[in-house]
Amino acid sequence: MSLEERVRAATRAAAGTIEQIPDLTPTQTAPAARRLLALPRRWRPWLTPVAAAAAVVTLATALVAVRIIPNGGGVPQSPAAVAPIPGVPEYYVAINWLPKYGSAQGLLVGDTFTGKTIAVPPPAHTQLDMVVGAGDDRTFVAFGTSTVHRSAPGRWWKLTLAPGTARPVRLTRLPITQPEFLVAMALSASGRELAIVTINTALTKRYLGVYSTATGRLLRSWSTTSRLAFSNAFSSTSAFTWIDGDHAITFPALRAVSQPRSSKTTYVQQVRTLDLTAPGSDLMANSHVIWSTSSQPSPPSKNVVTPVSTAFPGGEPGPLPCGEFYPMVSANGKTATCTAPSYGSGGPRQAIWQTYPLPDLLADAGGGTRVYQSTVDLPAGYSLDVETLWVSASGSALLGEWTASPPPVGTMGGEQNSPDYSPQPQVHFGVISHGTFTPLPTPTDAFPLSLGDVAW
Question: Which key words are in the record (predicted)?
């Protein structure tokens, strides 16, 4: 019996624990509206937040020049498989459409080093929208919404991996009840608690709750009416994570700064930390800042696609060393790392990972330490997108991805494309450690991916 056949058999066997498993006969089902807060998604080719740490382990900067050629030449192709790298998780779980199951939106379990993937169909009448992982590389939680009842509350599902056993995948319903709109979620390193951020239907109050994954019971909760916490002006879940041995949580926020001799307000990016053992239930009052950008306005050219003006009329963002998004804090709470923004398309573009020692209350593009740098020479019209998908608990290694995306069909080089020519994005995925990039397999059915769509 193949691994995928074992997964299917195990999924059927788990039917009693997840109510019902959908018929494996392909059927066409229209995607349901997700019960997720409508936050701006990543706008490729913006560089998005990444995570690493250099305060504990010094990483040398590597300068690498790469030339992209539209037919796929000129760039080393991803390997078919590589030997496992100590400290890097072996498995990941990704949200993906599954053609074998009627294009249902379910999960892919992938092997980081071989590139092999197996499909895990969603529960009946459900599409899975977001996934997060624990620190053991075996425990994951996915959030799903109904494909039948659009107004029904979302549900959470626990995915447990047991490679090499007769039941390698087990999907079970988590007994968590939360009717509000989901903004973000983060699974503790131990896998015993799930932090969930929601917002009420009036969009006036935000809640952060910590739930037991064993019982579904709400263990602690905080709330705020401040629209600056988890603001949709800089939507990113990269800064929402567990640190300090699961004793604290970090989250993104903004700070409004009135500019002298000006009617405008500058909104400064912040990463705040919340001590879970301290008293209090006010999310903003009981947390403190560990990373913040400058209050000086950014040059107008840097704000071309930043949606701050829609969320904060008359406002503008401060300097954005991470582009529109936030850095990710390492699990030890000592560093925050992100990619420097790269604007435009075609020509040489810089893919830069940089890290900041914490606390850093005046982070800018010139601060921190570069841990890896690559110059990518793109053809006309191509854009570059850079992601960090995982970081080790100590910050000594990260999993990074960069994608060279062609222009839309029909606009290649400003001229009409041939109908039978549709260039595909060139995706490169690998381990960044000690200033080097080690390529890993990039399955076409799984990559490119963004944070929230994949977890290790």
Answer: Membrane, Transmembrane, Transmembrane helix
pLDDT reading at 93 higher than 60: yes
State residue 179's pLDDT score. Answer: 79
Q: Domain limits at 154? A: 3-28+45-455
**Structural domain count, the chain:** 1
Q: Which residue has the tokens 């990972």?
A: 353
- Tell me the residue type at 137: D
Distance CA 210, CA 289 (A): 20
pLDDT digits (tens, 9 = 90+) for 43-75: 222 222 222 222 223 333 455 667 666 655 555
Bridge-partner residues for 252, per DSSP? 271
Q: How far apart are CA 136 and CA 169, in angstroms?
A: 15
In a domain, residue 407? The reply is yes
In the block, tokens 């810089």 appear at 350
**Structural element, H or E, at residue 309:** helix 308-311
- CATH number for the domain spanning 183: value is 2.120.10.30
Burial of residue 335 (number of CB atoms within 10 Å: 0-12, 13-18, 19+): buried
Residue 39 lies in a domain: no
**8-state DSSP, 414:** G
d(CA 299, CA 314): 15
User: Taken in order 266, 270, 276, 278, is the CA torsion positive or negative?
Assistant: negative
As a whole number of angstroms, the distance between CA 101 and CA 115 comes to 21
> Count of CB atoms within 10 A of residue 2's CB?
8
Which of 66-70, 104-108, 232-236, 397-401 is most confident? 104-108
Tell me if 66 is assigned to some domain: yes
- Cα 261 from Cα 357, distance rounded (Å): 33
Q: Can you list the positions of beta strands (E) in 233-368?
A: 241-243, 248-258, 265-275, 287-293, 315-317, 321-324, 328-329, 335-339, 347-357, 360-363
| Of 354, 345, 396, nearest in space to 374 by CA | 354
Distance (Å, rounded) from C-alpha 71 to C-alpha 159?
39
β strands within 151-224, DSSP E: 155-161, 169-173, 181-187, 193-199, 206-212, 218-224
Relative to beta strand 126-133, strand 360-363 is unpaired
Contact residues for 332 (Cβ-Cβ < 8 A; gap 6+): 53, 56, 243, 244, 393, 394, 395
What is the DSSP track for 335-389? EEEEEPP--SSSEEEEEEEEEEESSEEEE-TTSSEEEEEEEEEEPTT-EEEEEEE
DSSP 283: T
Widest CA span of the chain, in angstroms?
A: 73
36: in domain: no
